[in-house]
Amino acid sequence: MTQTPHLVLVDGSGFIFRAFHALPPMTNPDGVPVNAVYGFTNMLARLLRDHTGTHLAVLFDASRQTFRSEIYPQYKAHRPEPPEDLRPQFSLIREATQAFGVPGIELPGWEADDLIASYATAIRAAGGTCTIISSDKDLMQLVGPGVCMLDPIRQTPIGPAEVEAKFGVPPEKVVDVQALMGDPTDNVPGVPGIGPKTASALVGEFGTLEAVLQAAPEMKKSKRRDMLIEHAQAARISMQLVTLARDVPLPVPLEDLPTREPDMLVLAEWLDRMGFRSVLARMGGGQPSGSQAHRAARATAHASANGTLPTTAPATAATPAGEVLSAPYHQYETVRTAEALQKWVTKAQEAGLCAVDTETDGLDPLCANLVGFSLCPAPGQACYVPLRHEGTLEAPAGEQLEASAALHLLRPLLEDDTVLKIFHNAKFDLLVLDRAGIALDTIGPVDDTMLISYSQSAGLHGQGMDELSALHLNHTPISYDSVTGTGRNRIPFAQVPVDKASQYAAEDTDVTLRLWHVLHPALRPAKALALYEQVERPLAPVLARMEKMGIAVDRAELARLSADFEARMKDMERGIYDAAGRDFNIGSPKQLGEILFDEMGLRGGKRGKAGAWSTDSSVLQDLADQGHDLPVRILDWRQLSKLKSTYTDALLRQTDAQSRVHTCFQMAITTTGRLSSTEPNLQNIPVRTEEGTRIRRAFVAPEGRRLISADYSQIELRLLADVADIPALRDAFHLGQDIHARTASEVFGVPLEGMDPLTRRRAKAINFGIIYGISAFGLSKQLGIPAGEARSYIDAYFARYPGIRDYMERMKDQAQRTGYVLTPFGRRCFVPGIGEKSAARRQYAERQAINAPLQGGAADIIKQAMVRLPAALDAAGLGSARMVLQVHDELLFEADAHEAEAVAQIARTVMAGAARLSVPLVVETGIGQNWAEAH
């Protein structure tokens, strides 16, 4: 070897199984299954194009029997035989390596991993370097100086830092950790009860497996100590099983592995025979034609449906669900034994991806118990694992796995960094699994089909699984009502017969996986990939941790508020009865309508479809604006009643044993990307009223801690100045001027110094009104001035800032042309009503189109900040700090009192740097014992 060698080693056996399970069924022109062959071929083509070393080889397993079987006969003995459709593909994959001119190497009695270890050792001894194309955790022990790994699916490097992040120890200690924790996938026994965290902690403390075992008798008495002593020999055997041999005789010498250009005639003939000529076209070897082109197009469509293959079709390739996902539904398995569950876990690990869903006995993930779970590693292949079904005399539940045993088998799959877990509404399932004992921070990586869809289609339709299934798969899933009943006849899911529960639950994961196959490849063409990967997907676990943490409330203060509101409502009721001329049920819209419009004869009433008078807030506000007393009193009473029922009463009911409230953040509801919250809704507490302030005062920090509020200042106006490119507004923000006073000065021609507060108030109303597309009529009502005067203000505003009018017209035009508008960060906000014939509805949609980029842009910015803040706080050593609440443009943190100032500083820095605009982002922070003090 005359030059510095770089050997690229491909873990062929590992890739075969991942490709087989990742791709839907495919056949070549002879009818032979080829989905794994196609995936392997794409991988080799990309490797030769992008990651060519000086030397190259593909390593395969020769047989199941290796030297490890002699050490421990149970090693991998439980693994099922390869699927029927995979068996004929092994020889074709070996043909593929020959067609590409790449050496394919195997050796009886040794695993491919041992050959990889030995070749990597040999090339390092020769002064070269090695790249291992694999994500197999067993190969991570080889990473070190001159040896790295590359995940062939995600095309991401794996170096010492990534290995330590996974195992908690450097690569040279990986085998010690693996020996302690064992591996149920390969039947490596390990020490019972020792998981990844405990294993890495022990090795970190004592240095090696042997040192841990030697120290065990001196450890504090515990179950862990007893297990280490009792299973010491099993751990030593495990060490032999997981340690790769690095001195296997090399079947092909290093000097015989130089990378060569493939013989294009040989390769073209083989690819044509297989129906893979689209691969040849991408390698510059010509274009497919005729019937071969049709076959290649079908193969390309199959590949593009799976967003994880190393080489996929061009972004314009079609992914018809009928062709791509044609596997039948409802042929699902009920898993009742550990052996059966282990087979499904192994299948999922080999596939490299798996849809997962949980079934519970409640809708609150922080309280619900796990009734069962389902897995789906490939379309049409799904199972349900019942855990806590009660059964009846007519339909007994039958054998079920004990929950802890099932979760023990499931844990390695969920915690495997090389397997993508796919959920629909992942936040719910992560919290359910966390409560069941699998910490949400250990699960990953995760995809969420709800958020994948939402990132592309906010406002266009709902994001529920059933709706997306009908829309994208043309399939109507089994409904929850059909298995549990409805109304008074509804039964808990734990009482659903297991056979019905299995079909329902397993189908959910099947549908979820098929949706992923269809929706994930569409992210890039929809220009939503960055939004999903950088904002929505990483935000889900952040919000899950916030929901789990909750926020503390002062129950005594809430009780006082509730009593006070009730007393004030009683006083109000007497005045309402006097104004109405008689007593009536104030909460009855029907009775109120009769009094206002039949008895009092007020004008402006509107009847609904049922013939009753409408008495909603807009109707009452119109009557109040006309000077009528009763509607004013009703509005005040309703406001207090809502605060009492929604907050003071509800919060008392919803606190846990630690007096904390846990809201649920809805991630895929709004058109603009804003978060909303439910149970309780903490987003609508009035900001500027005395009652709202009193309610905020009831949200408190526990003793010794503080609440820290961080709030973006006028973020939507800053976005308006940026996207509409308004120099005067940009200058004002850069200079730190009062933006409303500056607007008043610019529009009304009055000096900034000594400005009349009324003039500033009018400018403020216009500034915020413009964001929401306010009309002259709306502004006149808000300011209490004639409509003509309001119109003159708006005209003067646009005359001074013509760029804002241009922006508004652009947004309306874009919505009319495309059906959506874009935030400054690329989020599509659909505006379905933009084509309405009704002028009123169309104008409402136009106002949505104007506001959505600003409100959505603000949502994008604060979400970016929320994703970055946990790591920033950890890096700053602020371990006590927790983000507990998000309300529109404000974040609320809880931290130890002595760290509060530092938390505020980190929040300001991260939030201000979450986006780059032509104007500065300003964040105002406050610290207090309660929310009102901090805000």
TrEMBL record:
It holds the Pfam family DNA_pol_A_exo1. GO terms for biological process: DNA-templated DNA replication; double-strand break repair. It catalyses: DNA(n) + a 2'-deoxyribonucleoside 5'-triphosphate = DNA(n+1) + diphosphate. Residues 5-260 form the 5'-3' exonuclease domain. Keywords: DNA damage, DNA repair, DNA replication, DNA-binding, DNA-directed DNA polymerase, Exonuclease, Hydrolase, Nuclease, Nucleotidyltransferase, Transferase. Residues 298-312 have a biased composition (Low complexity). Residues 332-524 form the 3'-5' exonuclease domain. It is an enzyme of class 2 (transferase). Gene3D superfamilies: 3.30.70.370, 5' to 3' exonuclease, C-terminal subdomain (1.10.150.20), 5'-nuclease (3.40.50.1010), Ribonuclease H-like superfamily/Ribonuclease H (3.30.420.10), Taq DNA Polymerase, Chain T, domain 4 (1.20.1060.10). Its EC number is 2.7.7.7. Residues 284-312 are annotated as: Disordered. It comes from the Bacteria. The keyword Cell cycle does not apply. The keyword DNA damage applies. CDD domains: DNA_pol_A_pol_I_C, DNA_polA_I_Ecoli_like_exo, H3TH_53EXO, PIN_53EXO. Residues 692-899 form the DNA-directed DNA polymerase family A palm domain. One of its GO terms (molecular function) is 5'-3' exonuclease activity. PROSITE patterns: DNA_POLYMERASE_A. In addition to polymerase activity, this DNA polymerase exhibits 3'-5' and 5'-3' exonuclease activity. Belongs to the DNA polymerase type-A family. Single-chain monomer with multiple functions. NCBIfam families: pola (TIGR00593), PRK05755.1 (NF004397). This is DNA polymerase I. The lineage of its organism: Bacteria, Pseudomonadati, Pseudomonadota, Alphaproteobacteria, Acetobacterales. The gene is polA.
